[in-house]
Amino acid sequence: MKNRNLFCCLLLVAILVSLAGCQSTYYAVWETLGKEKRHLLKDQIENARDDQVEASEAFKDALTRLKEFNGFEGGDLEKAYNRLSDDFENCQERAGQLEERIEKVERVAQDLFTEWESEIEQIQKREFRTKSHQKLKATKARFARLDRAMNTARARMTPILTTQNDYVLYLKHNLNAQAIGSLKGEVDSIEADIDRLIRDIGHSIKEADDFLKIFQG
Fold first, then answer.
1. In the chain, what is the straight-line distance between the N-terminal and C-terminal CA atoms, in Å?
2. 85-99, pLDDT tens digit by residue?
3. Whole-number Å distance between alpha carbons of 11 and 133
4. Runs of H (alpha helix) within 174-216
5. Are residues 202 and 187 in the same domain?
6. What is the pLDDT of residue 90?
7. Which residues does 202 contact at the CB level (< 8 Å), separation at least 6?
8. Which end of the chain is more exposed for a tag (fewer CB within 10 A), N or C?
């Protein structure tokens, strides 16, 4: 019953937001469920961290499949190509999901900081107002580090996806051993790019963990 009620509440959120198309409505509904912007930001950052882990695994799998395909020595070439193409499509989907997630994180963070600044102005005691300003400044600085790390990792995906797309489309029109052999040099380049991407994602995940440790959501 509890899970059913939660589902109904979440469905209500989705319906109201889709009808109103307004971020304030989204926040208002969540507040009725006991979630403030700080809770939503924490949730979105945790989701972004999880999305990055999944994206990292997707690119690792695609690289493994690429190496296997590059070393193809016999069997069903069409089937091997389809598996390779599916892995590359998965990378594109993960990258798209991560981009949307980062946008959500940034939107909620900006709205939270705007609200925070407004509420500080309502504090009459100077000592409290000063401490709140300091906390806000430190939180924004920490978030900026996280935001840069997430966007750096996401940007790293773009050239890899472009190269993957070129690779798959070329093979689609030239699916033979000679074409595979001619692309061996590309594999080393893709591997180096994916290795850098994995490091960037790891750094971004660490920044997310560090932010969550000091952020009271």
1. 27
2. 999 999 999 999 999
3. 37
4. 177-182, 184-214
5. yes
6. 96
7. 56
8. N
Question: Is the CB of residue 76 less than 8 Å from the CB of residue 36?
Answer: no
Per-residue confidence band for 18, with pLDDT thresholds at 50, 70 and 90: very low
Question: Rounded to a whole number, what is the largest CA-CA distance in the chain?
Answer: 77
Q: What is the pLDDT of residues 53-93, one digit of tens each?
A: 999 999 999 999 988 888 776 677 888 889 999 999 999 99
Neighbour tally for 157: CB within 10 Å: 25
Domain with 10 in it? 1-35
Burial 112-145 (b: 16+ CB within 10 A, else e): bbeebeeebeeeeeeeeeeebeeebeebbebbee
| Shared-domain flag, residues 45 and 140 | yes
Cα–chain center distance at 2: 30
CA proximity to 84, closest of 70, 60, 66: 66
Number of domains forming the structure of the chain? 2
Tell me, yes or no, whether 65 and 2 share the same domain. no
Rounded to whole angstroms, the Cα distance separating 16 from 23 reads 10
What are the two backbone dihedrals, phi and then psi, of residue 73, each rounded to the nearest 5 degrees?
A: -125, 10
Look up the pTM and report it.
Answer: 0.83
Rounded Cα distance between 60 and 55, Å, is 9
Residue with tokens 């935001």: 147
Q: Please name the residue that has the structure tokens 């993960």.
A: 94
- The answer for residues whose C-beta is within 8 angstroms of residue 203's C-beta and 6 or more apart is 149, 152, 153
CA distance 185 to 208: 35
My answer on whether 26 and 44 are in the same domain is no
